[in-house]
Design the sequence.
């Protein structure tokens, strides 16, 4: 059985989340949705060998 080894994130509270998502999409090229954006973990960044 697989298990969760970590959970985390960066969270911002803002008055206009729709406008914030649009800014991130336009200026940073991030795909955004109702809950912002997600980043996939890349094994190459892991410090365990």
Sequence:
């Amino acid at each position: 059985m697989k298990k969760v080894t970590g959970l985390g994130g960066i969270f911002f509270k803002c008055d206009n989340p729709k406008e914030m998502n649009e800014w991130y999409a336009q200026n940073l090229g991030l795909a955004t949705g109702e809950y912002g954006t997600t980043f996939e973990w890349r094994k190459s960044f892991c410090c365990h060998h």
